[in-house]
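ABC-2 type transport system permease protein: structure tokens wanted.
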Amino acid sequence: MTAFIRFEVIRTLRNVRYLAFLVVVPVLLYLMWGRTGGPGAMVAMAVYAACGGALLGGGSTIAEDRATGWLRQLRITPLADRAWLGGKIVQGTLMAIPGALVVCVVAASTGHVSLSVGQWAGLGVLILVGCLPFALIGVFGGMLFKGKTATVALMLLFIALMLVGGVITGGQQIVSWGNVVPSYDLMAAGIQIVHGTPIGGGYVVNLGGWALLGGAAVLLRWRRA
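Answer:
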């Protein structure tokens, strides 16, 4: 399964659209308005990049593979169905790293963001673990739709989560129920880390709830496939 995950990660990183939308765009947004926003703006753009990578990294490739018949080819290989499913979830989660890492590097070098080693480590762990719900939702979307339909659906969902959760505005403007969506919880928890305050338990519970919901949806869809 490790070789499969490595193959899928490299394959996604070679996708120019992925690199442009989920690495270049958040970096440009940060450079345009985030450098004066302090560590909170960095967290918002890192969450933007990470959530998009997790949501689209695995889901869009599943939909493409279903449309091209690649999944049927995989079924005649020694790769078990469970290993494939687990590999796609891990792939989606790992795709949260590249964009978030680049945003943090840019923020540290141009935005004068200075955190302790513990804060950087805590933020990294939070983003990686906190993106599991997005990876699961992405896998579900890829299993539900085929081809470009899945990519469009996941893109629209991603934009909605960024707007409703206030990620685009760095948490300055959110709708009245925006604290329910996982994008808000991930951003708010990250901001608490960079400000040196304990993470609110409500954020962790909400992210866990979304992960359980996403996992249940994936399992139901997988069993019906």
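The chain has a mean pLDDT of 88. The chain has eleven helices and no strands.

Cheers.
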